[in-house]
Design goal:
The complex is a heterodimer. Chain A is an alpha+beta fold. Chain A is 23% helix and 32% strand. Chain A has five helices and twelve strands. Chain B has a five-stranded parallel β-sheet with strand order 4-3-2-1-5. In chain B, 30% of the residues are buried. The chains are: A alpha+beta, B alpha/beta. The interface between A and B is medium-sized, with 12 and 12 residues.
């Protein structure tokens, strides 16, 4: 099986942990921090992003509270944190070019890095691997979410 | 850089309705933006703005025909973002509307309430 399975053309790398409802992902780093971003599905639903404004380094966010605001020509909303913790880094590149998220939602388009407070508990509440793919299949079919379209140079 | 706006109160007053569709989307978009920034947001519909809230109307307003987004979509997204929608009782009467004519989730308040909301808000935006 590919490490980057697709559901309706939307990539879902197996090693990430997903909040399927909020369309966010979490990657666990070696130093105990986590990196957080928007999924391919989220960037596709929003369309080409005009602005992305992460919260400041040092901000403590509870799970479910916004980590950033993002806006496109047709949508504006929060990126809700999948975990509780302190923001230790923000992706400054997004401030000048939010479309990085459209081109590379899982790599260059990361939004914040966080030092989580309850990593084990909260990671267990997310979906990962094939369970995440299956959960997304169910949601995408139930809500008839449109197939992902990718800009030139897209990387999964 | 400006202070974190979290918790501040924004009051959006919408006086335009379905007779001017191009003036309907933006105030709701700004309300959603403020909500995404964790502000406490209220949209107050008065004068012609009241017409947006009549059941069966908002789904007929579609600014971009290449998109499936209608004014109803915008109102629903606003409510999903926990923006409070309020309508002026006196304006409802002008449009021969009652509580039963108004879409779900909208609270009807009187004129003194808008004054209270304006005094309580950190900023008011008029449209």
């Amino acid at each position: 099986m590919s490490d980057h399975p697709e559901v309706r053309g939307c990539f879902l790398p197996l090693h990430l942990h997903y909040n399927v409802h909020e369309n966010t992902w979490v990657e666990v780093n070696d130093d105990g921090t986590v990196t957080i971003g928007m999924t391919d599905i989220a960037q596709n639903l929003a369309g080409p992003l005009l602005h992305a404004k992460p919260k400041k380094v040092g901000a403590v966010r509870k799970k479910g509270k916004p980590l950033a605001t993002v806006e496109s020509s047709k949508w504006v909303g929060p990126v809700k944190s999948p975990m509780t913790g302190e923001i230790v880094a923000v992706n400054e590149a997004l401030l000048s070019d939010a479309t990085i998220i459209n081109r590379s939602p899982y790599k260059a388009g990361w939004i914040v890095k966080m030092k989580p407070e309850n990593a084990d508990t909260e990671l267990a509440e997310l979906h990962t691997g094939q369970a995440a793919v299956d959960a997304y299949k169910t949601r995408i079919e139930a809500e008839d979410i449109k197939a992902c379209e990718h800009v030139e140079g897209f990387e999964a | 850089m400006m202070d974190d706006p979290e918790g501040k109160k924004i009051l959006v007053i919408q006086t335009h309705g379905i007779e001017t569709p191009r003036r309907t989307y933006s105030p709701l978009f700004y309300a959603m933006a403020a909500a995404a920034m964790e502000m406490d947001v209220t949209v107050w519909f008065t004068m012609d703005g009241t017409s947006q809230l009549k059941k069966g109307v908002a789904e007929t307003i579609q600014l971009d025909t290449t998109s499936d987004v209608t004014l109803k979509t915008m109102l629903e997204q606003t409510q999903d973002a926990e923006v409070k929608l309020r309508v002026c009782q006196q304006s409802l009467a002008l449009f021969d509307m009652t509580l039963e004519d108004v879409i779900d989730g909208v609270e009807i308040l009187g004129a003194t309430s808008i004054i209270d909301l304006a005094l309580d808000a950190d900023h008011t935006m008029y449209f």
